[in-house]
Design goal:
By secondary structure, the chain is of the alpha/beta class. It has helices spanning 9-32, 72-78, 114-121, 124-140, 157-166, 210-222, 241-253, 265-274, 287-296, 305-313, 321-340, 361-368, 373-379, 382-388; strands at residues 37-47, 52-62, 65-71, 84-87, 92-95, 97-102, 143-148, 174-177, 182-184, 205-207, 227-231, 233-234, 236-237, 257-262, 278-281, 299-301, 405-408, 424-427, 430-434. The structure holds zinc ion.
């Protein structure tokens, strides 16, 4: 059997033209069938752009997109008869949430050598199945899109997961995937493996020098990466500015963005100077680094909840002066970022067994550092969509966008924790979960 890609059709001419006619007629049969029409009625709808509630609202959906949204009476009147009605009663509807920093391929134990054992003991097939489980948990938690910022040594299993979700083989959020990530040789997990084990798998693609960095980007793009993830530092700056510049150059040429792990002021400045699109973590960002980010329009994805969860789980490990000052500088970074008007997108950084599906804790964590509930919700909707370059498709409930909706009981503006108990999820017009139905 010959697999013919669309771009090859020009070369094959007449034969394919004939085939195309029969395909076109086959398609016209299915497009004659009207796309499924659904009306979602709800007590309250949050317009995340204006920050206001619309009460007694309805959303009209045709196929996978929103056709209209507004007061229930108007929307129902304008919708052709025969539409299926989903009545969510007094619930509050929001756009599907977005997590800009996930690792769906990672279920790493926090035991000693957990990272190394994860690489050593699991096949790539098993890692992919873990990814499918994490994807489902994430979607059921109300996160209908994620930006997955490297797969922690699972080769290209994240591409496979993204594609399998698109094909409807497994349930999960819409994904952008970074594939392997790029780190300076010896500057990312696993550390201090015996030098005798030359082929021990690594958590990222290790490079040394500009040409290796360029090659890594080209390779990852060739295998389906939607964005590129780099490690600008690991406690100290690691990749050089020229190495990162070439990564940005190659990625931007392919219209892909670059996300940089950076926690030190110098690492952040290096990455921003190289032209990256977002700083991941930024926990040690000082005012100068944040001013530079503001000037260049670079996003901050502060990943706070993963730290909060660790503090809650093992408080005894967070009592040293060094740990306290880390927590204080992380708090300061977000406070100053808000004060300067640095763009912020939410990302929860789940990589452990118990973190997938708890993505909404990140919104609560952001409010603990001074963001209002509405700002935190925007960080996980409109801002996140903007960072991903998907603002036309997701991030708000508007005509023309994907029908990605969630519903909760209560008022998330008054109590952000309400978003940790999502009871209804719709993705692309399809109900994923509806706990309102008894
Ligand atoms: Zn991460």
């Amino acid at each position: 059997m010959i697999h013919i890609r669309p771009w090859q059709s020009r070369m094959v001419g007449i034969v394919l033209a004939l085939a195309a006619i029969s395909i076109a007629s086959a398609q016209s049969v299915s497009s004659d069938a009207p796309a499924r029409s659904v009306i979602v009625r709800v007590g309250r709808l949050l317009d995340v752009r204006s920050g206001t509630y619309l009460t007694n609202a309805a959303i009209s959906i045709v196929g996978d997109r929103i056709r209209a949204v507004g007061p229930a009476d108007d929307v129902v009147k304008a919708t052709p008869a025969g539409a299926q009605v989903i009545d969510l009663g007094g619930a509050t509807v929001l756009p599907g949430l977005i997590d800009c920093h996930t690792h769906l391929m990672a279920r790493i134990s926090d035991e000693r050598y957990g990272y190394e054992l994860n690489l050593l003991m699991k096949s790539q097939a098993y890692r992919a199945l873990e990814g499918a489980a994490n994807a489902r948990a994430t979607l059921e938690a109300g996160f209908t899109s994620v930006r997955d910022v490297e797969n922690e040594g699972s080769d290209y299993a994240d591409v496979a997961l993204r594609d399998a979700i698109r094909e409807g083989l497994v349930e999960g959020p819409r994904m952008q995937v970074a594939t392997r990530g790029i780190a300076a040789l010896g500057q990312y997990h696993p550390f201090r493996i015996s030098p005798d084990l030359a082929a021990f798998p690594t958590g990222a693609q290790m490079v040394s020098g500009v040409e290796e960095a360029r090659r890594a980007v080209r390779e990852q793009l060739g295998h389906g990466a939607d964005l590129i993830k780099i490690y600008a530092d690991w406690r100290e700056p690691t990749l050089t500015v020229p190495e990162m510049e070439v990564v940005v150059q190659e990625a931007h040429r392919a219209k892909r963005k670059v996300a940089a792990h950076a926690t030190t002021p110098q690492g952040i400045r290096n990455a921003v100077q190289a032209g990256v699109d977002s700083i991941e973590h930024g926990h040690g960002a000082d005012r100068a680094a944040l001013e530079l980010m503001k000037a260049k329009g670079v996003y901050l994805v502060p990943t706070l909840s993963v730290v909060d969860a660790s503090v809650a789980k093992t408080p005894q490990q967070w009592t040293s002066p060094r740990a306290r000052s880390f927590l204080e500088s992380m708090h300061q970074a977000v406070t100053i970022a808000k004060e300067l008007g640095v763009k912020i997108a939410g990302g929860s950084d789940p990589a452990a067994v118990d973190r997938h599906g708890r993505n909404a804790e990140e919104l609560e964590a952001m409010t603990r550092r001074g963001l209002t509930a509405l700002e935190a919700i925007r960080a996980a909707t409109t801002s996140a969509a903007d960072l991903m370059g998907w603002a036309d498709d997701v991030g708000s409930i508007q005509a023309g966008k994907f029908a990605d909706l969630i519903a909760v009981e209560g008022d998330p503006i008054g109590n952000i924790v309400a978003l940790q108990r999502v009871k209804f999820v719709m993705k692309g017009g399809r109900v994923i979960k509806n706990d309102f139905v008894p």
